[in-house]
Amino acid sequence: MNREKVVKLLKLFPEIDSEISVRRGILNDLERYYDTSGAINYDGMPHGINHISNPTEKTALNVPDFVRKEIEKYTAEIAELQKVKVEILKEVSRLSLKQKNIVFGFYFHSMKWEKVASRTHYSERQCKNIRDAALDRLLCLFRKNTALTRYEIKE
Fold first, then answer.
1. Separation of alpha carbons 78 and 27, rounded Å
2. Distance between CA 115 and CA 125 in Å, rounded?
3. What pLDDT digit, counting tens, does each position of 12-52 carry?
4. Which domain holds residue 114?
């Protein structure tokens, strides 16, 4: 874990929700196209002979292996992104109030330095110094967090 990865994780934070929604959309599409359990009649009345009677077995037989692997992959990615988001927020919340305000403004809300300085009532130079101190503190906190050290940023 180095300072560059800390900055990349902070810049990734606002994009995590959109990444999750994209992956959920793909996951929903895969399930809609290949998961036919929604079309199975569950009223209990017999409707035919010589067919698989258990809806779960029928669904398992209809979903190809590569699709099942894709569904598992996207489900795991969504869980990992949610975990990373929670961990980033948890570690940033450990900062002092002025450091949190600077980090939230600059990285999470994508403000320019002028806007961050006017909102926090510091000069731009002071804001950058506070940001540097916050990054050093976050580097120590992120190193101790196994979820963040293991996460590989995909570009």
1. 10
2. 13
3. 999 999 999 999 999 998 888 776 555 555 556 655 555 55
4. 3-40+54-150
Which of 143, 140, 144, 138 shows the shortest CA–CA distance to 13?
138
Residue type at position 52: I
Q: Per the structure, how many domains does the chain have?
A: 1
The residue type at 43? D
Q: Which amino acid is at 46?
A: P
- The DSSP secondary structure of 86-145, one letter per residue, reads HHHHHHHTTS-HHHHHHHIIIIIS---HHHHHHHHTS-HHHHHHHHHHHHHHHHHHHHH-
Tell me if 119 is assigned to some domain: yes
More confident residue, 58 or 132: 132
